[in-house]
Write a structure and sequence with these properties.
Layout (H helix, E strand, L loop, with lengths): L10 E2 L25 E5 L4 E13 L3 H6 L6 E22 L7 E18 L2 E4 L11 E8 L5
Antiparallel strand pairs: 1-3, 2-3, 3-4, 4-5, 5-6, 5-7
Length: 151
């Protein structure tokens, strides 16, 4: 069972200092693009999949080093993952016009999801159990409009 102790890995796709959106990478719009990455969404059936293969990451060793620098230089690595969403437990249409916390609208499907994940950094390999062994207590897919697209 994990407990308190020194953090020895902090895997992050962003470079220091963060530029643009933090902890965000671009992947193909098409499911299983030429690079093995992709997204496929079917809101009508509540199904979606996300596949990322060998995406470059950096291991900063600690969150503080990832956010503020000053520690050892990051070690390059890769991460691969697959997430599958399925089913329709509930459909929601949300429109939030609150001037402080709002400014978005969307159609969402609450459902279930399964995931498997692996990462390699230097001699270290991290790997979850197989996709079929995972479960979720909450999952949601949807389409959201915000910013200049919210009217």
């Amino acid at each position: 069972m994990p407990g308190p102790g020194a953090q020895i890995h902090d895997l992050n796709p962003s470079t220091f200092p963060p530029v643009g959106l933090f902890w965000t990478i671009q992947i193909s719009d098409d499911h299983q693009g030429d690079d093995g990455n992709g997204v496929d969404v079917h809101l009508g059936t509540g199904g979606a999949s996300l596949q990322v293969s060998n995406a470059p990451i950096l291991d900063y060793g600690s969150l503080g080093n990832a956010l503020f620098g000053g520690g050892p230089p990051p070690v390059p690595g890769t991460v691969s993952l697959r997430v599958d969403w399925q089913g329709v437990n509930q459909r929601l249409n949300i429109r939030n016009t609150d001037p402080v916390y709002g400014g978005f609208a969307g159609e969402f499907v609450r459902n279930s999801a399964q995931m498997q994940w692996s990462a390699t950094v230097g001699d270290f390999v991290f790997e979850s159990d197989a996709l079929g062994t995972s479960s979720s207590s909450f999952a949601e897919i949807g389409h959201e409009r915000n910013g200049v697209f919210f009217s």
